[in-house]
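Components:
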Amino acid sequence: MTTTTRPEATIEAHPDLPLVTITREFDAPPALVYRAWTEVDLVRQWMGPRSVEMDIEVWDCRTGGSWRYAARRDGEEIARFYGSFHEVRPGERLVQTFTWEGQPDGVALETMTFEPLDGGRCRTVAVSVVDSMEAQAGMMASGMEVGINEGYEKLDELLERGLDS
Amino acid sequence: MTTTTRPEATIEAHPDLPLVTITREFDAPPALVYRAWTEVDLVRQWMGPRSVEMDIEVWDCRTGGSWRYAARRDGEEIARFYGSFHEVRPGERLVQTFTWEGQPDGVALETMTFEPLDGGRCRTVAVSVVDSMEAQAGMMASGMEVGINEGYEKLDELLERGLDS
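Structure:
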């Protein structure tokens, strides 16, 4: 196995609209990356920062389903999150809502697409829409990039060792 | 019973952000208007234009639940809609997603609040967020005001005759 250094995710705040776009490439085709994103036993293995355990309490990944998890560090709960799966379009697209319970009136609508690239690779594009430029700025200042980049590195590792290993 | 002429709903497109805000007042307190908005046997009695029958197939109105309905005119299906209930906060707030199946990639995130007014009245404020100014313009041009205003008139009538009548 060769270890390649992958670029960090690109996290872009739209200059005029309350959108944040997170883009990343993976060395696996859309069908596999999609599986890792939607099957709870795989999601558990990569989502979130390395220092945090994601305790997934609800994961009903279907159109009209919902999800809920707690984040724990050293056994102590540090945050809770929940949302709904608006649309689950296998291998292509996932639309969900997202709330951090620490800010119960804040809601993001996230659309994730899985785009095929040459060489059996894939690009994920996650667009989050919020309702104000202030909410967008809050999202950019939340420190989310740590969880995103460390999580995506763990996802690289999971894809390298194989989803069914 | 006196019949008062109520103003139409105010439908505002934000000039800079992809938001549409729909505001209306009702001659009933938030708790009753909220019930009419969330209990399926009441929703059936008022939602949508007068010329259309809303065939509600799924209505699981709880945080993490979902909904789905077809619109029929003269017995013929003319449109289908679906979404999720992201948050149901009784008497206060309802956050849901909304897709018209004719445009399957279009999703709105709707936050409805029920604000108490003097005299046992209430104001509903529904803010829809979409992901582009083009989607906002499409929403404004969709003809939705007919269904909104006729539906709200039917809701006035339902509130006047009593929810449990």
